[in-house]
Amino acid sequence: MKSLLTILLILNAAFCVSAQNRIPNFIVIFADDQGYRDLGCFGSPNIKTPNIDQMAKDGIRFTDFYSGYCVCSASRASLLTGCYQPRISMRGVLGPHSKIGLNPEEVTIADMLKQKDYATAMVGKWHVGDRPQTLPTSQGFDSYFGLAYSNDMARQRGWGNGPTDLDKIWKMKKWDIYNNELYRNGKQVESPVNQVTLTDRYTDECLKFISSNAKQPFYLHMCHAMPHVPLFVNDERYDPDPKTAYQLTIEHIDHSVGRILKKLDELGIADNTVVLYTSDNGPWLSKKHHAGSALPLRAGKATTYEGGMRVPCVMRWPVGIKPGQTCRQVAATIDVLPLFANLAGIQLDESRPIDGRDISGLLANPKSDSPHAEEGYYFYRNNKLEAVRIGDWKLFLRKNPELYHLRDDISESKNLADTNPNVVAQLQETAKNYHERLMKEKRPAWTAGK
């Protein structure tokens, strides 16, 4: 009996060691146009997000986390490739049937993880090209289910998307005024798209993928269509008052996150699954009550002020991240690719430069230095370098420079350029050197006919 017990203990210990050493699963959940303050764990006064808040309690919350760009397409391409916008020649926003897209020669997170035989799936909004050569199944993903561009594009009727029209859409639940195609891999399977059920259908698709691949390493790239306007929720959550639309939409997304986390628990794979939740850029403030809040940050989407690019981020990985952590160091979506490479034991190709840096050190010690501490973090818009952050200093590279100390002035309200000329000169020189090197290394986008 003793020998049998000894054998069982040895087998159990071996299993535990194997589970700990197994490369992790990865899930990225990407919201669209969600503001910095639009989660309970980031101070929202009215939006209830218990599932994402629990992720923060169980893992780490990043307070100084940046998107790669201030609007949709370039932001998504930056996340996928670990690169600033001009390095991969990606436009800020692509329209339907665009003649350019993310070059399939680029190495995406999915491409990289294929080196370790990960199962990969893209669910949701893609928006870096809708031609066959640029869809997810040409960019390292085994499968794809979602919209190829934003949920307000290709409108059939003459409705705008200002607050008044958005109120009408919300009240009527009229999804069919849009001619936006839903894709299953490379095939269009629904047009127009029933957006009332879209968040739930995306979540269902994620659960199927997780269940089918629970016994092997997997990567799920899940990009919600919302809270980009127009906003929709399922009938169970609906309130006809458009003033509630944004709150209900975020709470619906939080419910989706909860379903995914529950499935990981049910399958016994939660401990070794990295789950990251963040947004592609800040809130679209011109949409008024159909948009979120970036407070206390300045401005929102389409700007390189903090409100346009500093976004909420939480990450959970029970075997690798201690619970209840807060990191106040600079990190960004461009860092996701090198982070996942490190955790999966993959060596990146040094002949193909990227801008992201491995932030695994911040997971182990949130108070350690950011890998961007010396070289800086850069804010591009339309291929132009607009600003740089080094440490707590952020400089806007304008004819009349704007310099802010973000630790003391998170709202970018006090321009300190005149009283800190040496800081201005130092940041200008560092930014000039980085930008010149990047532009020499830039790579082309995919272009139709070439």
Structure overview:
The chain is 29% helix and 17% strand. The protein is α/β, with parallel strands linked by helices and 450 residues long. The strands form four sheets. Strands 8-7-6-5-9-1-10-11-2-12 form a ten-stranded mixed β-sheet, covered by helices on one side. A hairpin with a 2-residue loop joins strand 14 and strand 15. The longest helix has 23 residues.
Question: Helices, strands, pairings?
Answer:
Elements: H1 2-21, E1 25-31, H2 50-58, E2 60-62, E3 65-66, H3 72-81, E4 100-101, H4 109-113, E5 119-124, E6 143-147, H5 163-172, E7 182-184, E8 187-190, H6 198-212, E9 218-223, H7 245-267, E10 273-279, H8 306-309, E11 313-316, E12 325-327, E13 331-332, H9 336-344, H10 360-364, E14 377-381, E15 384-390, E16 393-396, E17 402-405, H11 421-441, E18 446-447
Parallel strand pairs: 1-9, 1-10, 2-12, 3-13, 5-6, 5-9
Antiparallel strand pairs: 2-11, 4-18, 6-7, 7-8, 10-11, 14-15, 15-16, 16-17
Whole-number total of structural domains: 2
Oligomer: single chain
Distance between the termini: 72 Å
Shape: globular
Element order: H for helix, E for strand: HEHEEHEHEEHEEHEHEHEEEHHEEEEHE
CATH C-level name of the largest domain: Alpha Beta
Q: Supply the helix-strand structural class.
A: alpha/beta
CATH superfamily descriptor of the largest domain: Alkaline Phosphatase, subunit A
Beta strand count: 18
**Unreliable residue runs:** 4-20
Major sheet description: 10 strands, mixed
Radius of gyration: 22 Å
- Strand percentage, roughly? 15-25%
Helix content: 25-40%
- Which topology of the largest domain does CATH recognise? Alkaline Phosphatase, subunit A
Give average pLDDT, whole number. 93
Question: What count of helical segments does DSSP give?
Answer: 11
CATH-level-2 architecture of the largest domain: 3-Layer(aba) Sandwich
Strand order of the largest sheet: 8-7-6-5-9-1-10-11-2-12
